[in-house]
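Aim 2 progress update. The chain analyzed this quarter is reproduced below.
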Amino acid sequence: MAEQSDSGLIKLWPTSLLKRQLPSHEKPNEMLRLLIEKMDSETDNLTTSYREAGFLQMPHPATGWLLQCVNKTVVDYLHAHNQRYQSEWQVQSWPNINRFGDYHDLHNHPHSYLSGTYYVSVPQTYESLPGRDDRRPGAISFYDPRPQANMNAVKGDPQIEAEYTVLPEAGTILLWPSFLHHFVHPNLSKETRISVSFNVVLKWSDELLPTQ
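Predicted structure tokens:
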């Protein structure tokens, strides 16, 4: 619900992105890396088999740790948006391994409420390639969900930037509304980029009905 400030200003239709570093992630990240690399060696097209979506439900100390962290992050996100009533949800999750040149087209995540990614391993060095010098290897970009909202923006206008880019590190977790379009830039490193993506699907309850 939009609130009016003392100055009369009403901020409408916010889109929130949560970004934080998980503490003490080094040991579980190493376990996650080994687990995902083993799965990758045994599975064809691991990154594109997201429809199975049960990675964090696997009985493993590292997946259990990350599932707890995801749930805590979801609670914090909901509370920050004044959603303090009882909610239940299902977490769908899948691992990603991006090799040299791998990327993910512009997309969103239908049929879920929130979506996110946790970064297990992020390359530290990138290949020196000819051509454009404005590449953002390993980054993820999010786009204003309001089409052409920046077309008439002027200097100082908060609407001017239609794109927001994050360069994640190992231990970074991101959480955003599932409708938000995003693009995963190509990995231009000989090192793999390993992450775990997830959707938060709310279980229906009358508590979810808004008052309008």
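The CA atoms of residues 121 and 184 lie 15 Å apart. The chain is about 15% helix and 25% strand. These observations will guide the mutagenesis experiments scheduled for the next reporting period.
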